[in-house]
Amino acid sequence: MRLHVANPNATPAMTDAIAMAARSATGPGVEIVATTNETGPPAIEGPHDGAMAVPGLLDTIRCQDAEPGTAAHVIACFDDTGLDAARCTARAPVVGIGEAACLVACQLAPRFVIVTAQPVSVQVITDNLRRTGLGARCEGVRAAGMGVLEVEGAGGEAALERALGSAARDHPGAALVLGCAGMAPLATAMSERLDRPVLDGVRAAVALAEGLSRQGLATMRAGAYPLSRDVRGRA
Amino acid sequence: MRLHVANPNATPAMTDAIAMAARSATGPGVEIVATTNETGPPAIEGPHDGAMAVPGLLDTIRCQDAEPGTAAHVIACFDDTGLDAARCTARAPVVGIGEAACLVACQLAPRFVIVTAQPVSVQVITDNLRRTGLGARCEGVRAAGMGVLEVEGAGGEAALERALGSAARDHPGAALVLGCAGMAPLATAMSERLDRPVLDGVRAAVALAEGLSRQGLATMRAGAYPLSRDVRGRA
Amino acid sequence: MRLHVANPNATPAMTDAIAMAARSATGPGVEIVATTNETGPPAIEGPHDGAMAVPGLLDTIRCQDAEPGTAAHVIACFDDTGLDAARCTARAPVVGIGEAACLVACQLAPRFVIVTAQPVSVQVITDNLRRTGLGARCEGVRAAGMGVLEVEGAGGEAALERALGSAARDHPGAALVLGCAGMAPLATAMSERLDRPVLDGVRAAVALAEGLSRQGLATMRAGAYPLSRDVRGRA
Amino acid sequence: MRLHVANPNATPAMTDAIAMAARSATGPGVEIVATTNETGPPAIEGPHDGAMAVPGLLDTIRCQDAEPGTAAHVIACFDDTGLDAARCTARAPVVGIGEAACLVACQLAPRFVIVTAQPVSVQVITDNLRRTGLGARCEGVRAAGMGVLEVEGAGGEAALERALGSAARDHPGAALVLGCAGMAPLATAMSERLDRPVLDGVRAAVALAEGLSRQGLATMRAGAYPLSRDVRGRA
Amino acid sequence: MRLHVANPNATPAMTDAIAMAARSATGPGVEIVATTNETGPPAIEGPHDGAMAVPGLLDTIRCQDAEPGTAAHVIACFDDTGLDAARCTARAPVVGIGEAACLVACQLAPRFVIVTAQPVSVQVITDNLRRTGLGARCEGVRAAGMGVLEVEGAGGEAALERALGSAARDHPGAALVLGCAGMAPLATAMSERLDRPVLDGVRAAVALAEGLSRQGLATMRAGAYPLSRDVRGRA
Amino acid sequence: MRLHVANPNATPAMTDAIAMAARSATGPGVEIVATTNETGPPAIEGPHDGAMAVPGLLDTIRCQDAEPGTAAHVIACFDDTGLDAARCTARAPVVGIGEAACLVACQLAPRFVIVTAQPVSVQVITDNLRRTGLGARCEGVRAAGMGVLEVEGAGGEAALERALGSAARDHPGAALVLGCAGMAPLATAMSERLDRPVLDGVRAAVALAEGLSRQGLATMRAGAYPLSRDVRGRA
């Protein structure tokens, strides 16, 4: 089984980190193909970056979707950038890491709290939670106050740990959700240090995507997600 | 005062109709400048069209925002396509016709019902209502079952009247909201035939935008809508 | 165009301040007529004052509604006292400053916070937000802890600034909404000092009311707001 | 124990019917005192009637509250007209029949449906349900389409039975709630004919009020319901 | 009238305290019969204890329901343990003390806050509030951090007073609700010390149950609460 | 990897069918162990059956949890019977098929509709949706009107197809969710006949459970799901 993980931004180092996290959460016989959106912004920080990333992201999805054996796509930005449009672009199912992380968190605790990188992302994530209904399970969305591309440095790791620790203290019964794809490499270490589940959307999404494929499920075309004209036009 | 009305699709006839509706709802001394998004799809039907329209739409907004005297922008698609990104792109306030129509409907009746053109738009609009909180006032979102570009023909007008009439019968206490910018020319006739308020988002949005400017109000930059890097970089 | 701004309380100095704010937010050719409810309480602080103010308020609305050229009415109490009853009393549309301020705030930021004068008003405003659906956008309703008639004195201005500043710190992404008509004269100064939008319902409501009239819209009579028997009985 | 049941309208025959229903639901040693609001409208149909009824209603409550032994007040209009203001007027607790009927219905079935007399009352009741939170349990609010004062005639009884029967068919798992004080005399007969609980707010409210008194509970003064100035002024 | 108060846990001293509270809130001619669930856990702390208590609890209810004159049952655990199952087991109505306390609190203040004993109960109570709709009125659910069986000791009383006092300061407009049946003996003292209503679910539930019986109301069988096969099988 | 699928009822044929569905949705190297709750009711129809099934269900979970290599548990009743208690009983994560089916449905369509077997289950499922927040995505819960053990017969299959077809017509944009574990064998056939996704909770839950294990995630113990005393007492 071949799963496509699409990094909507233009930073290849982030794609590599995402691919490694993805590979750690899949079963035997699953191949992870990770792509970078070369025409996207270096990082997605806020609604303007998100909107500008979508056309290039849809190109990578359309391209990978045409490859034989592609079973599902994962959009590796916690904002679930372009998720609905991608579902209209791909024949295979599409999973967003933001929604996936929250769904999986709900299996481990009744409530969760999200820690993202930038304040500008808080409202984007909050809006997504309203649409998915999962806001009812979310005790808060916070920003650690660092750039998306600063997460992996030593300062970033310390700042993230401080922000997660503070969230854990304020929300003693809530699972922690990492609100940025760039945080994926730190999930395991943070979970150990804070002694509670720390959810990474990349792993959550590839596991969900693998499961969708094993169940033989496909995006529903009637209603919200018809295939776009250009895709329907292909053989 | 100069108000920019941005048609996010590439159909100039629709831009003309929108501009005419806009001019009918503004006070003395207000100039309406309407633009067409030449790189957008002919019509916006669903999330894929919406996503592909945004970069070109933001270009027209950035360009008009730099014109002296531009007091506000209106995005003339009921899906409020790219609204948050536009608020990060323009120095002047930005109003979406979908949210505007619903807000104004709430001044005339406690509840409203929306009739859009295409079934694929129902979920886009429903999601927006969840984000804005106005879903609590909305009794339903329906599709008349016609293409966006078919609204103005004779068949389109009849189909719209049937759909509005049916919505009025099923929701006897609700104002009617036209869920597509292309329906703007028909608002007055439909209101007379159905004997209840029929809201057109284009008129609602330009009236709101004019009011924002008279109150001297500007988009709040802290939080969700910081100016994007490229705009900040300009003088 | 003639807009009637009704002060539901009996304090003429407050009526004057409200009228001045109203005039600052309207376009050319708009006349503001402001009335005082001589039989009302000196200030509306809580549900008892609100209930007792309504019959006199409806009298001023009925009277001004009969004047030729009255295009709309504004109820200048943030509690939106008697709003539904007024819509059943006037032939012209009626806008409440509480709902108007919140609607306009939603054009500038995704979230807002309200600062009113008295603790007893917090629940009245909270209940209104539940009815309008705008509670989904509201991060909190606070009281500055001063009498309605104390707002304009030097102590009142300082206390309001402290309360707004505290709300701004606790809600870094939210627009500020003044939760009392008596605060209208301070809106511009507060916005400058706090460097974010500070919404005044009086200005918001007259701008909305002017816009309703320019769109040719009228209160919907079927359903919730039939004209009351006594008004229907008039020629 | 003395319970005051206040009929907010001016129709003594309705007061008599309400008093009889009230007496059928109280325990030994409870005296029901029922008053008519002589300055109110003949019936409360919509928000205008409701607003005009409140000052007279508050007078009867203030007067009865001063009588020794008054343990609680019931407002016998399903709209819960003036409920918050009454709580600021009386030293004893105040129960509204609309909220009471819904609370009691929730003890018998997970969901309920309300049948009121006039379409104009549907939104008033719907707004109350939003404020109380009980809208989550309510499957619908319907109007039987008769005047409040027509309920007790032969035609009224037949129309009510038709409306309740239709609601029962459409909502097979919901208890039925009578949405008008004038329907109180018909509750038992309707419950027998339709073979499911039919809730009458008058009985529900006096039972709740009796229970409040037996528990020694009083309206909370801090926050929303301070005693009004004039009552505080009395000895 | 005979009311059955079922203590779902196996601690007879708690049953005695509950029975005493129950007797203080009923009218003349009401007999309280209190039972202990001998096969239940010593105290119900969390969902596991709750689930294990239900079969024994249903036995006591089935048994008491067969006694002549039993008018209603009260489940004396704030978690409303087994409430729906009990409604399918008893011919007489069943009231849970958790829902009852919140319903009665809503008659005294627009909002309430709950203080329970153990952190593990917070989510159980929160889930119940979501199901009943009363979460809209609840400002928070807190744990005092003591075992259910420690409440009545001197340390327990002091800890409860601290927790209630802290809740009162943080929620100045909210009634206080005791979130554990074991707190019933302390309600009156706490209300006096904190000078605001302190609701005890045991008293609230028996008063509601007595009222249901006086109104002649019975659990609705169509829909959610059919009588279970074994009860139907009895004569 | 060993996954335990617990059938909470006492019908071995249903356990066999559930195990077969589970095996069809797992990856290489996953072993499914299915157990029958021998002390449970033959089928779970309503809250009384559900409550009586839990102690035996927890026994099977406790027993399987002690087996080396058990990676997760699945509760194979759409009511998610005893889910929270099970999370307090097992060291491994626990997934309920009701919540799992709805979560997976949300990856394929923005909305879903549930078709269960018995009317008595509608409220149980509705209450669960309120607790999980997924009610916001659910357009309705319907009963096909057959016994849980009748689903697999020829008449059951025809009745289910009729009920699903009717749900599909009424909800043209919603995925279909099978609301009963006994329907698992029919999922693929129904999806083909109705040409849209038909979700089976058994498959959804085992796929989720496998994914949880691959991500190395465990139930969070702080807050809602502490290990019960008896399990903690074991080595």
Task: Summarize this structure briefly.
The structure is a homohexamer of 235-residue chains. The first copy, chain A, is α/β, with parallel strands linked by helices and 235 residues long. Helix content of chain A is 43%, strand content 17%.
Structure report:
The structure is a homohexamer of 235-residue chains. Chain A has 235 residues and is α/β, with parallel strands linked by helices. Chain A folds into two domains: 2-97 and 204-233, Rossmann fold (3-Layer(aba) Sandwich); 99-200, Rossmann fold. Chain A is built from nine helices and eight strands. Chain A has helices spanning 12-23, 47-65, 83-87, 97-105, 120-132, 154-170, 187-194, 201-214, 229-233, and strands spanning 2-7, 31-36, 70-75, 94-96, 111-116, 138-143, 174-178, 198-200. In chain A, strands 2-1-3-4 form a four-stranded parallel beta sheet, with helices on both faces. Chains in contact: A-B, A-C, A-E, A-F, B-C, B-D, B-F, C-D, C-E, D-E, D-F, E-F. Chains E and F meet through helix 2, helix 3 and helix 5 of E and helix 2, helix 3 and helix 5 of F.
Give the terminus-to-terminus CA distance of chain A.
23 Å
Specify the helix fraction band of chain A.
40-55%
User: Kindly state the mean pLDDT of chain A as a whole number?
Assistant: 95
Q: Would you list the SSEs of chain A in sequence order as H and E?
A: EHEHEHEHEHEHEHEHH
Range of strand content of chain A: 15-25%
Count of DSSP helices of chain A? 9
Question: Which CATH class of the largest domain in chain A?
Answer: Alpha Beta
Largest sheet of chain A: 4 strands, parallel
Contiguous uncertain segments of 5+ residues of chain A: none
